[in-house]
Design brief:
Length: 587
Amino acid sequence: MVQFLKYTLATVVGLFLFFLLFFLIIIGIAASTASSDEVTISKNSVLELKLDQPITERQAKDPFDELGLPGGFGSGGYGLDEIKASIRKAKNDKNIKGIFLNVEMVDAGMATLEEIRKELVAFKQSKKFVVAYNDICSEKAYYLVSVADKMYINPQGAFELNGLSAETMFFKNMLEKLNIDVNIFKVGEFKSAVEPLFLDKMSEPNRLQVTSFLNSLNDYYLQNVAKSRNKSVAELKNISDSMLVHSPEDALKYGLVTNVGYYDEALDYIKKRSGLKEDAKMTLVSLKKYRKVAGTAEGDYSKNRIAVIYASGDIVNGEGDDESIGGTKFASEIRKARKDKNVKAIVLRVNSPGGSAMASDVIWREVMLARKEKPVIASMSDYAASGGYYIAMACDTIVAHPNTITGSIGVFGVVPNFQGFLNDKLGITLDRVKTGKFSDLPTVTRQMTDFEKRIVQREVEKIYTDFTSKAAKGRDMSLAELQKIASGRVWSGIEAKERGLVDVLGGLDEAIKIAAARANLKNDYRLKKLPAQRSFLDELMGDATKEVKTRSMRAELGELYPYFEQLKKVSHLQGIQARLPFELKVQ
């Protein structure tokens, strides 16, 4: 027995040491990769933009990204900042002859695509080429590749140009089957975020607002594509509405692509455009590799800073995490930027459908304090709605893309009742002792009384009044004027500007220029990006298990992953919320 235990212990220790050594080797490889020397690019190279991973606001620090390791490592997506910086760098890089767009089902919002598209248009001013190839060309992908000089699509591929759509998942029938009641409290006729909990389809006000802003986004889409392809908007609209394109040959017939051909044919054309012979070597440089190429930055030696604070994700109470906007954390970041003497202006980059009303107000307060001391400019990305609008509305100037989804000035609260589910489905009963009549309020294990419902509704109405009053003051409107365009209604960036909710149409770069002008900096400044991103070791020693699990689930579920996320968010709703309808997906 002693001998058995000895060998067993030796085996366990051996396995532990093996995994420890393996772990240390992986860390060494990752650290080496992260700190490797700058990459040099050979002549006649082409930058390949293969946007096959989700695009986020900022590039995450992921040393495993280029190692191709299993288990979720190395699949952190692309940062919009990285993509834009690489395109700009390539524009002036003598070794880069052009850009090869290899885009299919691009995972990004319309405003994010708008920023990339503008960079590609600016790149073409260098007289370098942009060539695109697609096996499958989705509506979003076409918005990018339509700027290309040459567009190849696989003869057996698929091409989509049939307009935009938006869908919302409804949970009413599921909740009924589970015997779960939901108490809904809201203010605003158009505040549709709670509809999935008590309806099985869109209400008429919600259908009206979605139809309105979706048509605004689609019209802007068609205008830009028409300009790039030298067609009229009416012609494109007829192709889209009549769904005249069913195959790559149809896309060629109507002038939406320039060539029906294979990947190797696209590469052969790129070689010719690069001035190379057929047997000559041509280098395709990946985005992940090109980001390591040395570049120049304006104002490298300036002491002046413009703080760009990236607020991306759901707004939550407390510190939050890398995928959310923690009220406490972001209030602290704004406070630090306000007190930093080298920071002359602040740009608040918002990409959020909203969330906790309390956390939104905590951040709003710090924006109000900051604008008393230095310019504070809001830059809206794909979404800046409800709580996302709340944190932006105090800024001196609000900049939004024409295809940003914003507004949704409204509030709601949800208090579920799981008593029937626990009793009938699980056989669980509860009993309670109270010192007062309302000591257990709020509770999710019994039905609320009418009096208790009135208490919560009054609180929701109070927060809505506070929200609209602050929004009216921030936008220099009367409360009556503001409430006419509030009621929880969602607007496109174009619609929001027409109604005074937004000041300027443009992207992050326009917001930074406005901030520099307001601070009288001209070009004498550097950007300070906040919050500071965690180092590799911080990531590793932090919630690495959660990150790996998330990436693995995303890879496993593919296009179904957003639905999985929606189900999770339904179960996590708590407190009074200011947010968009559940993950309204535009495609």
